[in-house]
């Protein structure tokens, strides 16, 4: 629970939106359009979307938080990903999205490469003849995706901060691409950071595991797991095999594509 430097006393059913950047603004619009009682706060006196809030929703109160905020009395607190807020009533925009999404979700996280992989997966799905919408920690906030007709798939890039405030996500497929030391100003230990990343696998139908990452390789195996790595793959897994002098991306013994046919160069893109 956030402890008080100043206290905001809303009605018992109100939702407090913490942060009025791009994500916070998408949350405000979503809540307002679904008829909820909303209060907004930000530690910045003039956050990026304050003028838009005052113009489009003049009835929604904005409070400049000069210090920490007493959040008691709010039904729900929705915090933007970069803002550390604790409490049993704290969720994020991805949690709201997961409760409402009407199409399967492919969820992607990792310390490095998640934006590239998100864009590639979205593009591959489109090329396969299905419609996919991408968003999350990349480009479009997730709640803005709900304003469009439901696609065949959602492809979401998710940060550890977003995963910390999400419990209802049930991805069709989920992957932790890699984990390296990052955000240790936010997490007490590296183990805490890794644990946040692993939240993406909770409730996932299919887990995609990086077997080259020792932290991921040590996960207890689960039926339906698929692993990927730069070595030769076992049956059903993804990896690299050498045929003659040519490296191939393979699923088990099945050749998928030759390295020379890839337009993206570099080991990380393979």
Task: Supply database-style keywords.
single chain; 270 residues; elongated; alpha/beta
Description:
This protein is α/β, with parallel strands linked by helices. About 25% of the residues lie in helices and about 25% in strands. The protein has eight helices and 16 strands. The strands form four sheets. A six-stranded parallel β-sheet has the order 9-10-8-11-12-13. A five-stranded parallel β-sheet has the order 4-3-2-6-7. It has a three-stranded antiparallel β-sheet with strand order 14-15-16, with no helix packed on it. Helix 7 links the parallel strand 11 and strand 12. The longest helix is centred in the middle third of the chain and has 14 residues. The radius of gyration is 21 Å and the shape is elongated. The relative contact order is 0.10.
Write the layout of secondary structure elements.
Elements: E1 6-7, E2 15-18, H1 22-33, E3 38-42, H2 50-56, E4 62-64, E5 69-70, E6 76-79, E7 90-91, H3 93-100, E8 105-109, H4 114-127, E9 132-136, H5 142-145, E10 153-157, H6 160-164, E11 173-176, H7 190-198, E12 206-210, H8 214-217, E13 226-228, E14 238-243, E15 246-251, E16 254-258
Parallel strand pairs: 1-5, 2-3, 2-6, 3-4, 6-7, 8-10, 8-11, 9-10, 11-12, 12-13
Antiparallel strand pairs: 14-15, 15-16
Would you summarize the structure shown here?
It is built from eight helices and 16 strands.
